[in-house]
Amino acid sequence: MSETPMNTLQYRFDGPEDAPVLILGPSLGTTWHMWDRQVPELTQHWRVFRFDLPGHGGAPAYPAGSVAELAERLLATLDRLGVQRFGYAGCALGGALGIELALRHPERVASLALIAASPRFGTADEFRQRGVIVRTNGLDPIARTSPDRWFTTGFAAAQPAITEWAVQMVRTTDPGCYIAACEALASFDVRPQLGGVTVPTLVLVGSDDQVTGPAEARTLVAGIPDARLAVVPGASHLVPVEQPAAVTDLLVRHFTTAWQPAYDSSTGQMAIVAAPVKPVLAAAPPQPAPIAEIAAAVVQPQATGRPDPYDAGIKVRREVLGDAHVDRALAQADEFSGDFQEFITRYAWGEIWDRPGLDRRSRSCVTLATLVAGGHMEELAFHTRAALRNGLTPDEIKEVLLQAAVYCGVPAANSAFKVAQQVIREETTPTE
């Protein structure tokens, strides 16, 4: 362990210094201790490198808002240590980071294991909503429900000490870093790019995982050219914690039989080795052939002048208002209203909301005040939701409406408080 600059990650090494490096990546809300029961066996073969996500496990709270940024911080950490090539195993968000590394820096990844991972984690709305709840209520509601997402019911009941450890691990995470990690997962979607993962890959999933289950695992296997699937019975999302022996055995077998040789820059060649015999995974029940529909990459025509602001507009509109709201608005558009939907996407969202002069929190404040002034209560409702997603707290929204009461009139503010109060209750009440 060592002091951690802003552009690197908190880390630790275990195992012999002259062994190949194997990196273990954690899940959102966990620390490197989620891998404790794998380390004794893995360090017989590798030098194991573990890291904490920003604000997790006492790591410095320097939020990272994208998986790509996390990957760059990990690589910066490894560069400082002189580690150029490594095997990588990651769970959930740690798995997303592994996919990012394999896509953007394949020359550094010798082999890959994706655990409880997915090319897209739920929907962007789900993770941004979680950020709203944490910003308003803190991490306690998320911490209390984590065992339900992470473990099977039987395991949680039989292992109260591990269950409490999981709750405390989430509870002590920095809220701002947790919210930023939710944003990273909200924007992560590599379904069209899976064919670009060219390293040997093991996809491992718990049979009872309700977060990223066997269906997501089969999507990964269907899209990644050299991928194998292992389903571990009797395990949920944190399968390395719930079934440590099975996960350890699968990792040892994968990384000892599927380690891609390094590219030789002096000859411009790479040694080609015979594909290993696919191991028989006795712990996994037979699975049907993986079938999944993966969106094909759309090739955009080369721009010939100023970019059309529509593309930026639809992206910002979805990020601020949410996919569900935008999908409803576009689905309801017809020949009469379709041009208007295109107009507001291109000019309101692509030209104005995407301007760099104000951040989104400031634009939400301005928008709320002007909607109160105009008496547009229906729009105030979904822009209150947008303000929460853009980082305003309920107290800050209250201050905006009080300010509006002075300059727009008490009757308008009275109506606005009723609308905003209902929205805030709906959006910030934790779901048990």
TrEMBL record:
The chain positions of domain Carboxymuconolactone decarboxylase-like read: 339-421
Instruction: Tell me which residues make up the AB hydrolase-1 domain.
Output: 20-242
Q: Which Pfam families match?
A: Abhydrolase_1, CMD
Q: Which Gene3D superfamilies match?
A: AhpD-like, alpha/beta hydrolase
Task: Output the Gene Ontology terms for molecular function.
Answer: peroxiredoxin activity
Cross-referenced InterPro entries: 4CMD/NDH-1_regulator (IPR052512), AB_hydrolase_1 (IPR000073), AB_hydrolase_fold (IPR029058), AhpD-like (IPR029032), CMD-like (IPR003779), Decarb_PcaC (IPR012788)
Which NCBIfam families does the protein's record reference? decarb_PcaC
PANTHER family xrefs: 4-CARBOXYMUCONOLACTONE DECARBOXYLASE FAMILY PROTEIN (PTHR33570), CARBOXYMUCONOLACTONE DECARBOXYLASE-LIKE DOMAIN-CONTAINING PROTEIN (PTHR33570:SF2)
Q: What is this protein called?
A: 3-oxoadipate enol-lactonase
Q: Which organism is it from?
A: Streptomyces viridochromogenes
